[in-house]
């Protein structure tokens, strides 16, 4: 075996092993969902979910055994595993739609990617789907909100490369010393909030089936609804109850864990620079949007507040149609979706932490310029003293992702502009692309069964890239390009 072949083999084995393990997740999801077909007497779902389970298990086992060996999982492998696995999991997740309700392959794949990435855009009439498919959509968002990798890490015994896999899914802090205990703590918090959300909505007179599905997608900041109009026809009480559930999902698990495990819950949920900015954007933005919509359209203040919270938390529930909104209002909402939720939560977007770091980098630069000769500048972040190297590393990471994010956004808007009718206003195109990339799910009117095949492909691509925060996808593209170059050489 020559050196190039050995290098390719060293990459392929751990990637194959990791992807194979992750493909067991949709298989287990399908098996868990089978009883619903009996409960609701929907026999067609047995075949659809059975084929899904068999496909996930067989393909997962084949890839896992093909990758067996002693090759350790490194950071690059973890990135590749995340990029490939999220695509394959979504493909397997599309099977129930195709077999169970004869939905086209493209629409089924769109719905599955939108579900697992926690985006919530839909090209189906959810209220017309059988119960097991409504559940499948909600479950895909609920699992995708925390991540298929975190789910697997909470079940499997500790193994080498677990830390790299954990970080590859856009997480940056451990709650406990080990990855397995951290993953289990995350799931304990997540399940607890889900049950609280179901109880809260049920007490607010939301029908129990709707309460179960919507609580799952609200805490996952996904936004899939089983109604035909999202939350437009919901009662004012129900709309008010969705707001705290969405906010809980948009706050990091680290903050929730500290709030529960320490005697200073207020400090845990409000003390950091990131959370202060998050609450500021949430409260001030909701007030501004409510006033703006009242002046322009005499819109109900509760609908405006819910819509703003839905955008900032990247949930995607809609309380009213957005297509008629003023371009300035849509631009304000686009900025909210771009910033997104807090790091380490179920939310999407750039994350508030990176916005804070970019602001701090400006402050540090100004201080550095204005410092006197021989004066030492102390760099701090949330009370933590940083070395110049640590500060530069954090800012570099935030700047790199921000640049990549805007690059993908620009390309996505350009591709989408050629995929929709010429009469479509540009602000509508920009809004929907940013919504997809930030995994929000709000739409100003582009997304639906009428969307062209090219438009669906564009949105699916930016959803996938946004969920992985772009870098793993860039690593995958770089590996594929290198292989193609070597073959031609």
- Helical run tally: 22
Largest sheet: 2 strands, antiparallel
* Oligomeric description of these chains: single chain
Contiguous runs where pLDDT drops below 50 for at least 5 residues: none
The secondary-structure element order is HHHHHHHHHHHHHHHHHHEEHHHH
Q: Cα-atom Rg, whole angstroms?
A: 22 Å
Structure summary:
By secondary structure, the protein is mostly helical. Helices cover about 70% and strands about 0% of the residues.
Characterise this structure.
The chain has helices spanning 3-22, 24-39, 44-66, 75-93, 95-101, 105-116, 131-146, 148-155, 162-168, 179-203, 208-219, 236-250, 253-261, 265-270, 273-297, 301-312, 327-339, 352-370, 388-417, 426-437, 453-467, 471-488; strands at 379-381, 384-386. A hairpin with a 2-residue loop joins strand 1 and strand 2 (384-386). It has 22 helices and 2 strands. The protein is an all-alpha fold and 489 residues long. Helix 7 packs parallel to helix 11 (208-219), helix 15 (273-297) runs antiparallel to helix 16 and helix 20 packs across helix 21 (453-467). It has a two-stranded antiparallel sheet with strand order 1-2. The two termini are 18 Å apart. The model has no long low-confidence stretch (mean pLDDT 87). The protein is 69% helix and 1% strand.
Helix and strand layout, with pairings?
Elements: H1 3-22, H2 24-39, H3 44-66, H4 75-93, H5 95-101, H6 105-116, H7 131-146, H8 148-155, H9 162-168, H10 179-203, H11 208-219, H12 236-250, H13 253-261, H14 265-270, H15 273-297, H16 301-312, H17 327-339, H18 352-370, E1 379-381, E2 384-386, H19 388-417, H20 426-437, H21 453-467, H22 471-488
Antiparallel strand pairs: 1-2
Helix pairs in contact: 1-3, 1-4, 2-3, 2-7, 3-5, 4-6, 4-9, 4-22, 6-7, 6-21, 7-11, 8-10, 10-11, 10-12, 10-13, 12-16, 15-16, 15-18, 17-20, 18-19, 19-20, 19-21, 20-21
């Amino acid at each position: 075996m020559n050196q190039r072949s050995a290098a390719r083999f060293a990459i392929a084995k751990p990637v194959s092993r990791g992807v194979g393990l992750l493909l067991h997740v949709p298989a287990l999801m399908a098996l868990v969902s089978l009883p619903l077909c009996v409960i609701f007497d929907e026999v067609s779902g047995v075949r659809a979910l059975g084929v899904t389970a068999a496909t996930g298990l067989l393909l997962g086992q084949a890839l896992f055994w093909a990758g067996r060996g002693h090759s350790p999982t490194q950071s690059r492998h973890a990135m590749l595993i995340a990029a490939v696995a999220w695509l394959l999991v979504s493909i397997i997740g599309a099977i129930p739609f195709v077999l169970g309700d004869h939905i086209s392959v493209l629409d089924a794949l769109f719905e599955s990617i939108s579900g697992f990435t926690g985006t919530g855009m839909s090209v189906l009439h959810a209220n017309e789907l059988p119960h097991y498919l409504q559940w499948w959509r909600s479950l895909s968002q609920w699992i995708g909100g925390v991540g298929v990798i975190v789910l697997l890490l909470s079940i499997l015994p500790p193994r080498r490369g677990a830390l790299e896999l954990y970080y590859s899914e856009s997480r940056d802090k451990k709650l406990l010393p080990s990855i397995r205990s951290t993953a289990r703590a995350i799931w304990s918090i997540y399940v607890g909030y889900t049950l609280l959300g179901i109880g809260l909505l049920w007490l607010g007179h939301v029908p129990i089936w709707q309460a179960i599905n919507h609580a799952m997608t609200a805490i996952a900041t996904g936004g899939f609804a089983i109604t035909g109009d999202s939350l437009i026809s919901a009662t004012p009480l129900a709309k008010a109850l969705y707001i705290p559930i969405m906010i809980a999902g948009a706050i990091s698990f680290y903050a929730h864990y500290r709030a529960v495990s320490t005697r200073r819950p207020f400090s845990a949920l409000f003390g950091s620079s990131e959370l202060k900015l998050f609450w500021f954007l949430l409260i001030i933005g909701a007030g501004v949007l409510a006033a703006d919509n009242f002046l322009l359209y005499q819109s109900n203040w509760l609908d405006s507040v819910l819509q703003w919270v839905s955008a900032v938390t990247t949930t995607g529930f809609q309380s009213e149609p957005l297509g008629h909104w003023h371009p300035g209002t849509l631009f304000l909402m686009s900025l909210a979706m771009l910033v997104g939720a807090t790091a380490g939560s179920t939310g999407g977007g750039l994350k508030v932490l990176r916005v804070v770091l970019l602001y701090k980098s400006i402050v540090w630069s100004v201080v550095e310029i204005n410092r006197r000769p021989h004066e030492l500048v102390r760099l701090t972040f949330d009370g933590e003293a940083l070395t110049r190297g640590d500060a530069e590393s954090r800012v570099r990471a935030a700047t790199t992702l921000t640049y990549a994010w805007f690059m993908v956004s620009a390309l996505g808007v350009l591709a989408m502009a050629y995929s929709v009718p010429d009469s479509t206003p540009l602000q509508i195109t920009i809004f929907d692309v940013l919504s997809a990339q930030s995994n929000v799910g709000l739409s100003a009117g582009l997304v639906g069964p009428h969307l062209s095949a090219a438009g669906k492909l564009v949105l699916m691509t930016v959803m996938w890239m946004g969920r992985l925060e772009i870098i793993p996808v860039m690593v995958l593209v770089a590996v594929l390009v290198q292989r193609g170059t070597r073959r031609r050489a």
